[in-house]
């Protein structure tokens, strides 16, 4: 049996034991001098290699710093110091902004001279805070790589003589159309110094500076999620995608070089998808994606518009980085880094911008909400305290869109019931409660929001009230709710018309405004051509409808884009409804009522399409049915056929998805006939996309001019996956288009084709 001797050195030394360790006996007579670290090493919590009265420590000597030793020194909390300095800088900025607005003061005198106390100190302290903090190893990813250091260095480089430059973030919009007071224009901190090229597009430094000035002067105040105090070179160094996104958006209203916008479409789209394919994404990439969703390039059709997909990617990327929980940002990263207050604020701003863009897209397209109104970060950002220091304009828009999100989430819960048309649908009480909440929100925002934010409020109110279309006809609240929706639509069109007095407003507003103008025009038209017209001012409704079409044409930035096609479709819908004398004696109802607040839009598009689908004309050159779902707008008759003959009687709802009149035998005959077609020819329009709809004798909007011809040249099959799909689907204004009049989503579509 083995015996083990206990390790006595691990046990406490008994009292009276005279045995001592060797090291203690050798060092008991010699006392080492007490080491005192220098001030800088103690502040940085680093080991100081130097004695009390010796030369400089190794770290101070290496960095050429003054090595001081103070036994009474106490370490300063940098975060508290930064917060105090930030608060001091904000106070100084508010003082400077107030002094600049005083009459008789010189702008140059205010900006010249020494910087305010604390401005450069903040930059220096921020730089030290980042440099001293342990950074990630090479190749590792952090969502905000050296943001503070780059901001401070860029400001020290680009601000001549350390002149303090007040930030434009958080400034309110003083007029319905401008975020900067009239008489002043925005100027970037430093002009661009380098030429840049993307694809075949080459822009000079002068063009870059002009485009950045245009963006921050005309576009930024609609959606303030970027920093105006950075130069173009700073943006390009940090994110080329964000740099070119700013250039592309500004080119929408850039009159000096009209080809920039169209030339950027293909290369910027390629660059965006290249960045999306590489994960993880930085917050700058997410900002670029969100901006491209707010100001998207026009696509050939609604179904090829990638905005809904892109905003879903942006939301997922935010959650991947932890931007949806700024307070615990570190928990979503595998590399330790110091989370500064500016990181938290930047993360909250990106998440808030993604929320606003997502709600704008889903509500206008008739999709379910991507966010929930109970999101903790959004709830904190909407608070009166504004703990994330969001720009005031962005916070007001966030509050409004959060309410709209709650409306859509509440109403989307009963989509299946509404789709079945059950009389048990009881949304009147819920809608009335939501309208009361809207009135409370309007009172809370009253006096603090700008005219531009008032347009957002009217848009949210309109999207809430159009849900009354989905109520049963015998509901007592339906008629009053629809009449309120009518007056809200009239007011929304009037607000946009007043804001459109600024010449650059129509080309710089987000796409959401154009979609809401279209919805307002459809609501006005729907009620004017119903039995409600007896109690409505028809002439005022006609004027508002024509105003909406004029606004759509003014918002167009290129041929055959969304606004230009919308104006033509609205013209056709008016003519279609005017030719039907029976609907003026009927309730305004919808056959397609499953697309939430956008059901009015999609139902009207079905009416428009079915009218042309029932017209009799030669279809020999139209080819086989498509293999993918086409868009209603993609096969617009504006590029393929004549204006509808309003004297022909028709039933616009004859082929809606719920009430198709085609029997099975007729469907098979159509499929066989279309499958036997071997070639496909386009139909050439006249100059219909360039024709301005006039006014008919009674003040109605008239359809465009007539006349077109057939083309003999064959075109690639747009529905063949192996053909030149992309080039064909982007026609010019006078190019050919394709339209399948006998093709029904419910009748001829087959996944086997």
UniProtKB/TrEMBL annotation:
SUPFAM superfamilies: Zn2/Cys6 DNA-binding domain (SSF57701). It holds the Pfam family Zn_clus. Its main location: nucleus. Residues 17-28, 151-173, 682-694 have a biased composition (Polar residues). Keywords: DNA-binding, Metal-binding, Nucleus, Transcription, Transcription regulation. One of its GO terms (cellular component) is nucleus. Residues 37-69 form the Zn(2)-C6 fungal-type domain. It is found in: Nucleus. InterPro entries: prtT, XnlR_reg_dom, Zn2-C6_fun-type_DNA-bd_sf, Zn2Cys6_DnaBD. Residues 665-676 have a biased composition (Low complexity). Gene3D superfamilies: Zn(2)-C6 fungal-type DNA-binding domain. GO terms for molecular function: DNA-binding transcription factor activity, RNA polymerase II-specific; transcription cis-regulatory region binding; zinc ion binding. This is Zn(2)-C6 fungal-type domain-containing protein.
